[in-house]
Design goal:
Blueprint (H helix, E strand, L loop, with lengths): L1 H39 L2 H21 L2 H37 L7 H30 L3 H22 L6 H27 L11 H36 L1 H37 L3 H28 L1 H9 L6 H16 L2 H10 L3 H23 L6 H25 L4 H29 L4 H23 L2 H25 L1
Helix pairs in contact: 1-4, 1-5, 1-7, 1-8, 2-3, 2-4, 2-7, 2-8, 3-4, 4-6, 5-6, 7-8, 7-13, 8-9, 8-11, 8-12, 9-11, 9-12, 9-15, 9-16, 11-14, 12-14, 13-14, 15-16
């Protein structure tokens, strides 16, 4: 169900971006991207609490303590109501100052931007209230429910995109109002779905001091990493706005849409793994947890590679087909950001292991310090007059550093050196697969001009060649046996159906 969701969400999201760009225009789309960057800086609160809720719900389920699961959900629901009120009130009061004095917005767009900003604030607060319900669904591993609600959300956003191409008044303001409406509908659906499908958990607001301290302590340290991540993604958006303007923001915004689509592709796989990793740690099955983690990292990388190769090799053609109107900088930004997604796939699940451990102060302080280098070195690069693309190159270098930093920290948590195990079970295979795939596809990009013919050829070869490379070089014997078993099962079903039809 998560894969069905992934394909639908990715397809609809990419098509929605085309409609939004055409409906808003390049200037308004740049404003939309930079306002989203400002709001995204506060995502650390939402994301850190989400991690905290999911961790404690999954951990208590792993121990089989349903009473604590009930208490954790009630406490998290109360906390998120308070967070939404505080953030919403603070942003409403500061919205005019931010638009007038912090952002580089054309003077004739200030009034519309302020109203749009406030609608996005409402949407953000409603999204905060979704967190406990999503955490509950993930902890109980009801992935089909999560898939259907996610698909419904992107379809609603597609309808919004079509709607703004037909509104007779300010499209930016209309877009903000409709997005707030979608967030309200999605929150209502999540609450209703949880109420009728997870009946063992009553929706009661409750206060428990000890649990509050545990949740807040975990979330506080998680927030360090989320702040650094927000500076990396959204802070860099503001830096680009300051040094290069809203036109460059539009190009970076398109690349960010591609990055989000690719990340959703991987998260569909990792969302199913996260609660299992935490539950295995709670049950003290450390070896099984590490095996699952390293296998998940490799398969995450291969999933990104399958999408990323056609994108990198034919990005110009893809953007022209997708958008029609391609903003400046979009092609190179998008190619680089796919490479960054490949590097991210090599370490994201390591963060889940750290969160399963629970005592994350040292981990978060170290990882946050490394992540913060993204913002610092991006500012320095732009200040020195380097190309805007340098911000993604900085990101890639920091991502490589983070792999080894996370491995070292987790080795300390588990009191065992996992670097050698990671090298044998992850790096060796992904490097072999990547080098052979690159050696196969690079000559095609040199010989053929970028165009529809090259895109179709590369896409066709990717579907056939890359899975073969992954099978022979990227899987262990157990995984190969699993694949062969699935192929035999599928073949037997097809043969049985054919016999039955005759």
């Amino acid at each position: 169900m998560l894969y069905i969701r992934m394909f639908l969400v990715m397809t609809v999201t990419l098509y929605t971006s085309r409609i939004i760009l055409q409906g808003l225009g390049v200037e308004n789309f740049g404003i939309f991207s930079v306002v989203g960057g400002v709001i995204g800086l506060l995502a650390f609160v939402n994301n850190s609490m989400s991690l905290s809720v999911q961790r404690y719900l999954s951990f208590e389920l792993g121990r089989g303590d349903m009473k604590r699961v009930d208490q954790t959900f009630g406490m998290s629901l109360l906390i998120h109501i308070l967070i939404a009120l505080v953030i919403g009130f603070g942003l409403f009061l500061s919205s005019r100052y931010i638009v007038d004095h912090v952002l580089d917005i054309p003077p004739d767009r200030h009034a519309a931007t302020i109203i749009f900003f406030r609608f996005i604030i409402i949407s953000t607060c409603l999204s905060i209230l979704q967190v406990p319900f999503v955490g509950l669904i993930i902890a109980f591993e009801r992935m089909a429910l999560l898939a259907w609600v996610s698909v419904a959300e992107v379809l609603l956003k597609l309808l919004v995109a079509f709607a703004i191409t037909r509104v007779p008044y300010n499209v930016l303001v209309s877009y903000g109002a409709l997005l707030a409406g979608v967030s309200l509908v999605v929150l209502t659906v999540y609450a209703t779905v949880c109420h009728f499908n997870i009946r063992s958990i009553p929706f009661r607001l409750r206060w428990e001091g000890g649990l509050f301290r545990n949740l807040l302590s975990f979330a506080s340290w998680s927030a360090l990493g989320e702040i650094a991540w927000a500076l990396t993604i959204q802070g860099v958006t503001i830096l680009i706005n300051h040094f290069a303007g809203v036109i460059c923001n539009a190009g970076y915004g398109i690349a960010s849409q591609i990055s989000s689509a690719v990340q959703r592709f991987v998260s569909s796989f990792q969302t199913a793994l996260n609660p299992q990793i935490i539950k295995q740690y709670a049950a003290e099955e450390i070896e099984s947890m590490l095996l699952l983690t390293f296998r998940g990292i490799r398969l995450s990388f291969y999933l990104v590679l399958l999408i990323g190769l056609p994108l990198v090799c034919s990005m110009g053609t893809i953007l022209h087909i997708w958008l029609g109107l391609v903003p400046d900088y979009a092609v190179t930004f998008s190619r680089l950001i796919v490479v960054a997604a490949l590097l991210d796939a090599l370490s994201h699940l390591l963060a889940t292991v750290a969160k399963a451990y629970g005592k994350i102060r040292r981990y978060q302080m170290t990882v946050s310090a490394v992540l913060s280098l993204n913002f610092l070195f991006s500012w320095l690069a732009l200040r020195l007059g380097l190309t805007p693309y340098s911000v993604v190159i900085v990101y890639c270098l920091v991502s490589i550093t983070l792999i080894f930093v996370r491995l070292r920290l987790i080795s300390g948590m588990l009191q065992t050196n996992i670097i050698g195990q990671y090298s044998r079970q992850v790096l060796r295979q992904v490097c072999a697969v990547s080098l052979l795939a690159f050696a196969f596809f690079f000559p095609i990009t040199v010989i053929m001009d970028d165009g529809v013919a090259r895109f179709i050829l590369i896409l066709s070869l990717t579907i056939v060649i890359v899975p073969a490379i992954i099978y022979f070089l990227g899987l262990d014997n157990e995984e190969k046996n699993f694949v062969r078993g699935k192929i035999r099962l599928l073949t037997s079903h097809l043969t049985a159906n054919e016999t039955h039809s005759k």
